[in-house]
Design brief:
By secondary structure, the protein is mainly beta. The protein has one domain. Helices cover 10% and strands 31% of the residues. Strands 1-11-10-9-6 form a five-stranded antiparallel beta sheet, with no helix packed on it. Keywords: Signal.
């Protein structure tokens, strides 16, 4: 009898332990903190002509360029950046939007903006990119003396991905290999380097670096 009671007690405590462990919540996939380097953004059309050519599509879930028609989040061509959400803006050769992506432009340091909760997201629309184009209006400034395109400091882009997850991005450079002081005459341009943090967990809005 004592043996039976002892076994029953052990079974009870085991079940209670497992139940408590399950109450800790779902296992979350680690947040990703990465740098994407030399993402090409070629375009056709000379100065004063309409831009053309396909956009280079990027997926945060893979951290790579993709040719998928559906599983992409943002795309680059020249200085234009499109999001997989909304509708075509009216420029040539835009990819078809089939996701629910959006952009929220925030001011601050990359480290200081840590959550997408409560933000308002904008999608591409007829005649307007969610990330505005043009010097000083969107993500860059243009220096007419040096002809250098430089990311505007303190602009952080919070991205709702095509499938409703969240990432944040800061653009580091528009030149191949991200030179500290690019030279218009010698450095190749239309190559994006950007830092990003991506949270792959549905419903999770935190955008802080993973704990080492």
């Amino acid at each position: 009898m004592k043996t039976t009671l002892k076994l029953f007690s052990l079974l009870f405590f085991f079940i209670a332990f497992v139940s408590c462990s399950n109450d800790d919540g779902p296992n979350l996939v680690p947040v990703q903190s990465k740098t994407a380097s030399n993402i090409p953004a070629p375009q056709t059309g000379k100065q004063g002509e309409p831009a053309g050519g396909p956009y280079t599509k990027f997926s945060f879930v893979t951290g790579e360029v993709t040719t998928s028609d559906t599983d992409w989040d943002i795309a680059f061509r020249g200085t234009s950046i499109v999001v997989n959400g909304g509708t075509a803006t009216g420029t040539n050769d835009e990819p078809t939007r089939n996701g629910n992506g959006g952009i929220s432009i925030q001011s601050g340091t990359f480290a200081s903006i840590t959550d997408a909760d409560g933000l308002t997201f904008t999608q591409d629309a007829d005649g307007a990119f969610a990330i505005p184009t043009g010097s000083n209006n969107g993500w860059y400034s243009y220096n007419p003396a040096t002809h250098i395109i430089a990311p505007i400091p303190g602009k952080v882009f919070i991205i709702r991905t095509h499938d409703g997850k969240y990432a944040k991005m800061e653009i580091v450079s528009y030149y191949k290999d991200a030179p500290v002081e690019p030279n218009f005459m010698t450095d190749e341009y239309r190559f994006y380097t950007f830092n990003y943090i991506y949270n792959p967990n549905a419903g999770e809005t935190k955008l802080t670096p993973p704990v080492e």
